Amino acid sequence: MTAFLALDLGTEGARAAVYSVTGSPMGAGDDAYPTRFPRPGWAEQDPDDWWRASVHAVRKALAQAGHPPIAGVAVATTASTVAVLDRHGRPLRPALLWMDCRAGEESALTARAGHPVLRYSGGSDAVEWLVPKAMWLARHEPETYRAAAHVTEAVDYMVWRLTGRWAGSRMNAVCKSNYDPRGAGFPHDLYESLGIGDLGGKLPDEIVPVGDPVGPLSAEAREELGVTGPAVVASGGIDAHLSLLAVGGAPPGRVSIVCGTSNAFVTEIDEPVFPPTVWGPYPDALHEGRWLVEGGQVSAGSVLAWAGERLIGRPRADLGGLIEAAAKLPPVDHGLIVLDYFMGNRTPLRDPRLRGAVLGLTLGSSPEQVYRAAVEGVAYGTRQVLDSFTEGGVPVDEVFLSGGIRHNELWLQTTADVLGRPVHLVAGDNLTLRACSVLASVASGRHASLVEAAAQYAPRVRTVEPVAAHARAYRDGYADYRAAGAATAEISHRLSERSGS
């Protein structure tokens, strides 16, 4: 019995799963790697750690599944997590993690470039993306940048480790490097105007649509991973963006929100709209002929972890009791507002210099109240993103949630309450891994298209209805959240400059 191998590189570690040809999980494994924060707003990882953790995770998954022959392999990673490598693929410095926001000045320069391809990204490149990070390297670490043969997304690095080929994901190229699949490809004239005219020579010279085969697993990778079978490697992509393939497909109006350390929002539309409050619309990034729209909260579950573990001081194992106590409190009347901009705002404000805040504290404020306010603040941020979709002409008819939110019932229910609409929680296994099984099935020839495979591998969902009695309190709380964000923006900017982030 053949199977598919899925690999997901997240913020904290690698996860692997083996799926049957019918979409049933057969085995899973995971392994962690560290993140280093050398300065405020900086975040780095070692690409060698990604591969080490991936090998361990895959071997665990294969052992649990009984070592079936593998027909197809696919990998997804965070984006833009950018590796800087020599011609042999060895790291020249730590990779810049997706949440690294050191390239704020460089991002601002892209907003003034006026290049037509930037229309696909709301007029500028976000601070997190590959192009501003490459600009920062060229300006601040010129010797390393000049020595780099490859400046590449993590997913493209992993595909190279799996196959020996430098084949770039079209999704990542379109969404993070300004690649125009309906025009001239990589915009070398834009790179030239931004002072990185040689960047095109450091990017993958072959761009492959999501789900298309790149090639078989290399002999070296087979031996390290312990894989048998044809093992055709698919072109992968961005973890959250691929989630649309794991919620049964992407009809207009269906939005997938992957809720974890950050929240990533993705949907597809048939005809493009160009509001400045979203990322995109990206042509042909996932499905040929359609436009992908993206939004995001750069800090979400990470805010809750900070509030519970670092501010309140509860060990992770004891957070369940804190969440349960906070859930017993009535919403909003604790008198606190938490702004979730701990690492800036991704969308709709597109401002990396915003900072988090806890407003309304008194000597009587309890840990449970602070934690509940943090949950509400993250939920307000989610509503702000979805409001920007609808206000910009992007329909929002169905909301699917997945990720770490499934482990926090307070966060889940509060999100439904603040949105004032039902949300569909994806049950069971990791959504990104399930999406990778869709890619692997298409690359192996098991399914003819992403649409066909996504329909067969649709997951089970649980619908969470909003509590009507909470509607007025959350309406008022959301209004205060928006007002507090506007009122503190100027001082946030000053504080971010003072801390050097």
Please describe what this structure looks like.
The chain has 2 domains: 3-235, ATPase, nucleotide binding domain (Nucleotidyltransferase, domain 5), CATH 3.30.420.40; 299-500, ATPase, nucleotide binding domain (Nucleotidyltransferase, domain 5, 2-Layer Sandwich), CATH 3.30.420.40. It has 501 residues and is an alpha/beta fold. Helix content is 36%, strand content 21%. It is globular and about 65 Å long. It has helices at residues 47-65, 104-111, 130-140, 142-147, 154-163, 170-176, 188-193, 219-225, 301-311, 319-327, 367-391, 409-419, 431-443, 450-456, 471-499; strands at 3-9, 13-20, 25-32, 44-45, 70-77, 82-85, 95-96, 150-153, 167-169, 206-208, 213-216, 232-234, 237-238, 254-259, 263-269, 279-283, 291-297, 337-339, 357-359, 398-403, 423-426, 461-464. Strands 1, 2, 3, 5, 11, 12 and 13 form a 7-stranded mixed sheet that branches. α11 crosses α15 (471-499). The chain is built from 15 helices and 22 strands. It comes from Nonomuraea aridisoli. Keywords: Arabinose catabolism, ATP-binding, Carbohydrate metabolism, Kinase, Nucleotide-binding, Transferase. Residues 256-434 form the Carbohydrate kinase FGGY C-terminal domain. Belongs to the FGGY kinase family.
